[in-house]
Amino acid sequence: MIKNKEQYKKKQTQALKSVGNLENFYKQKFKLKSKIINHQIKNGNKRTCEKTLLKCLKSFQKTLFKNYKKVVQLAIINTTPIFLLKEIKKLKKRRKKETIIPFIPKKNLRISYSIKNIILEALKKKSFSVKNYKNLAQEMLLSASKKSETTKKKNEIQEQALKRKKQLARFRWF
Known about the structure:
Shape: globular
Number of strands: 2
Number of domains: 1
CATH topology: Ribosomal Protein S7
Order of helices and strands: HHHHHEEHHH
Strand content: 5-15%
Helix content: 55-70%
Distance between the termini: 53 Å
Structural class: mainly alpha
CATH architecture: Orthogonal Bundle
Radius of gyration: 19 Å
CATH class: Mainly Alpha
């Protein structure tokens, strides 16, 4: 049984190294905890959001062999999009013309977008409420292993942005 745990840990560390530069991710000045709580808040109940996040992280500690912080960071890394799509409406003589322009968001916008997608995907499940932490933990585990709907959404957005390469000529910073 000890060999199985050691092999499991080796596979986990290899998977973490293959994802990319986690060291650069650690060096960023933002706090993930506060961002997750801010995206999760409904009706100003910050305490309940903090409790659900703590329960979620405690469940990670009990069930996983690896560090729970790395799991959360992997989930966010795997769901951060490189491109986002922005709709711009132009008026020309009583006609509205909508153009969709792909753009490269800043790091803070990417991270907040990925956190929002993880939380919204957890909300879609039937039994999720602000107090229910199990769906949030499950969604983070799935997105850390690249098996969730949020990673599929990210890939679809990337494909749409690459299809609209011509409109990168109208590239803007939003």
